[in-house]
C-alpha cells in the first residue's frame, strides 16, 4: 500500500475508513503518487533528499516561512487531520522544504491547500514529490511571484469559453469576470470551492489528464449553470449562483461523513436546493469537452503568455509614471520614453552581466518603483546620453557624483523616480534649483 | 429587499491582517478564528440604513498575498469604497500601505472613498503600530481612519457604515455620477417608501447566501 499510513492514523476513525474506501474508488489503484510517473522517478533517484531538506530548512526564517506559518491553520481547517499538531507539522515540513528547494517559487498561497490534500492521501515524502511535480511540471509558472501560469490559463479558459459556450459570450460583455472567478479553480484544482469529498475526484482527474481536466470541468460547470448565469444582472449574482452550485455537489460514493466535509461558507440553504453528483459532473465534462486536445491547450498558452506578461509590465509602467509625474515637470509621453530607456538599460545590464547588482536585486514582487533599478555602471552609460552637458569633456566625475547624490539609501542602485527627478532638475528646474543641485554635488559624501 | 442604493466595496491589505474576519463580523456578526484562506475573491453583502434610506453594501474580499495583486486590481474598477486594512501587531503590514494605496489610486475611480483600518485592536499588548501613526498616515493621504477588532466587533459596524456615509454625502454633493455603474454605485430597482423601517433591516449574507 502506498498511501496515507501516517495520516490514516491521525485522522478520526471515520476518516480512516473513508480513506480506505477512497482508495478503492480512485482512478488509480495505487493512488496519486503512482499516477505521477515523474514523482515516482524523482523519489527513487533522490533517496534521503527530502529528509535532508527538512533538516536544513526547519528553523530557518524567511519571508516564505513567515507566510507558511500564517497559513498552516488556514489549510483545510475543518478537516480533523489539520486540527492536530501532527498534521500541522507535516504540512509545515513539506511546505518549508519545498520553499527551501526552490526559492524562485518559495511559497505561494494555494500551495498550502494542495499540499494538505496531498498529505491526506500520500505519505509525507510522496506528498513532497507530488508537490514538486505539480509546481514544476504540471502547473508551470503557477506559483511564481506573479502567478503568471495561472493568469495564462485563465486566458486559455476564456478562449475555450468563447469557442464552446457562445451563448454565454453573447450575454456577458466582459469575460474577465470568469477569469477572475475561476482563479481558485485553477490554483487549487477546485479544492477550495468544492466540498472536499468531491474535490478529491477532481484531483484524480488532474493527475490523470493534467490541466485539460480542470479546463473541461470548468466549462462543464459553466454549462451546467448556463440558464442561471445568463439571467443574472451582475457579478455578485453570478458568484452566488456558482457558490450555491459548488455547495450542492455531492459524492455518493464517498463514505466521508458530512462533518468532515470542508463546508464552504454560506451553505445554509442546501436543503432547498438540487444536488449534483461529482461523478456525473466529471462524466459530463469528459463527454462534452473531452475532445479538447493538450496540444491546443499548449498553443493557446503560448499565444496568451506574451499578452499576460505585457499587461503586467504595462501596469507597472503606468503606476510608476503616475507616481513620478507628480514630482517632475516632464510630460507623460516624455516620461514614457524615459521609462522605456531606463527599463531597457536595466535589462541590457542583466543580459551582459549575470552578477550585476540590479539583477541581484530584481524582484518582480517588489513595489513598482523598485522593480527596475540601475547600478552605477548602467546609470552612467544612460545618464551620459541624456544629461544636458553631454559634450563636456570632464563629465566623468559628474555622473559619479550625481549617482552618489541621488542614491539616497546608498544601496548602490537608483530607481526611476530618483533618475527622472535629477534629470528634471537639470532640464526644467529654476536657476536657483539647478545651482543648489550642482552645489550639493560637490559636497563630499556624508555632508 | 428593495434598496435605494447599492455601494460596492473592496477590502484590501496584506495577507493575514483580518480582511475576511472583518467581512464576516460585519455580515454575520460572528468571529471565526479558524477559516479558509481566501484565494482570488469572495464576497458578502448586507443592508444598512443611512439617512432613512436602505443601502445595500456589496463587499468584495480579496486575497492579500503579493502574487495575487493582478487579480485584486480588476476589482478596484467599479468600487465606490475601499477598506485598506493593516494589522496593528505587524509593522510590515503598515509599511506596505503606500504600495496598496498606489495600486488603489491607479486602478480605481478618483472619487473612491478609502477607509484605513488598523485591525486587531484587541491585541494591545502586541501592538507595533501606534494609533497616532495610523492617524498621521490617513491625514497625509486623505483617508478616513479607524482602529477595529474583528474579534470583539469593536468599531467594525462603524468602519463599514462611516465609509457608506462618506459615499452617501458625496452623492448628495453631486460628486459621483450615479448613473455610471463603473463608480460602484447602483440606484435601487425601486425607490424605497418613506415609511420603511429604519432598524431591523440588518439582515446579513455572506458569500453566496440568499439572493441579490
UniProtKB/TrEMBL annotation, chain A:
Example of a GO MF term: small GTPase binding
Top-level taxon in the UniProt lineage: Eukaryota
Domain Rab-GAP TBC, residue spans: 1-210
Q: Which InterPro entries does the UniProt record give?
A: EF-hand-dom_pair (IPR011992), EF_Hand_1_Ca_BS (IPR018247), EF_hand_dom (IPR002048), Rab-GAP-TBC_dom (IPR000195), Rab-GAP_TBC_sf (IPR035969), Rab_GAP_TBC_domain (IPR050302)
Q: Where is the EF-hand domain?
A: 402-429
* Keyword entries, A-Z: Calcium, Metal-binding
- Name by which UniProt lists this protein: Rab-GAP TBC domain-containing protein
Name the species this protein comes from: Takifugu bimaculatus
TrEMBL record, chain B:
- What molecular function does GO assign, one term? GTP binding
Protein family according to the UniProt entry: Belongs to the small GTPase superfamily. Rab family.
Region entry Disordered: which residue ranges?
Answer: 192-212
GO annotations of cellular component type: acrosomal vesicle; endoplasmic reticulum membrane; Golgi membrane
**Keyword Lipoprotein among record annotations:** yes
Top-level taxonomic group: Eukaryota
Keywords tagged on the record: ER-Golgi transport, Golgi apparatus, GTP-binding, Lipoprotein, Membrane, Nucleotide-binding, Prenylation, Protein transport, Transport
Task: Provide the protein name.
Answer: Ras-related protein Rab-2A
| Membrane topology type | Lipid-anchor
According to its UniProt record, where is this protein located?
Cytoplasmic vesicle, Secretory vesicle, Acrosome; Endoplasmic reticulum membrane; Golgi apparatus membrane
A Pfam match is Ras
Species assigned in the record: Takifugu bimaculatus
Q: Where is the composition biased (Gly residues)?
A: 201-212
- Entry-linked PANTHER family: DRAB11-RELATED (PTHR47979)
Q: What PROSITE patterns does UniProt report for this protein, alphabetically?
A: RAB (PS51419), RAS (PS51421), RHO (PS51420)
Q: Name one GO biological process term.
A: vesicle-mediated transport
